[in-house]
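Quick one: structure tokens for this chain, please?
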Amino acid sequence: MGSALLQGWHAAGFGVAQFMVNEPAPSEALAAAVAVVNPTAEQIEQSPPDIIVLAIKPQMADSVLPSLLPAVRPSTVVISLLAGQPIERLSALLGGHDVIVRTMPNTPAAIGLGMTALIASDGVSAAQKQDAGHLMQAVGETIWLDSEKQMDAVTAISGSGPAYVFYLAETMMAAGISLGLSEQVALQLARQTIAGAATMMAQPDTSPSQLRRNVTSPNGTTEAALDVLMAETGGLGTLMRQATQAAAQRNRDLAHSDKDKNKDED
């Protein structure tokens, strides 16, 4: 996710000189995309960051966040991309620092079409909130949440959502092949159909349900397919609810995974 955001920020006009990165094994592409890789204490002291973006695995929070304390100033805005890690826990790992914006972006940020939900801690000023929002708006749309509890649902819908769409394309492609199409033709049909439908949904004053009704003729081919997909038992609606509930639960579980691990080790 961090690489996707960095790619999106560069495409939006942010310069290489604006970024430093801590990465134990940086790729050549990553090293070329930032001004400094693994800055020294002296470099951080000379040029302390205004914003720190946490783009690590949630399970690494306990070990990584305390190591960032030398770079954290009272005014430093810490933007977290960590799934399942609440602001309260992030603050504790950062020595009580309370200028934290928790976010949940998704990978289309790499092409400027991301969706990011944000929630700020009490210590974030209006100007800092605006700066964080501006950074994420550079790679797509943003929405500020009313409650941190909503992050579980956001993660399940938009954070993990691109994978659902990619899998939908996979299944459409496989279905096309089973109906006699070549792999190349089936892929092109599935890919462009999803891309086109998504663009239609992005138009003002449209809703998915209305668009679905517009393309569904009575007793037609689409209705025949939707009768299967919309079945009360085993239909797509049921599966999607089950899938997103599993994702939301996993997001909640991540907040306790390190604690449980430490308990097991004890």
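The chain has two domains: 2-152, 161-245.
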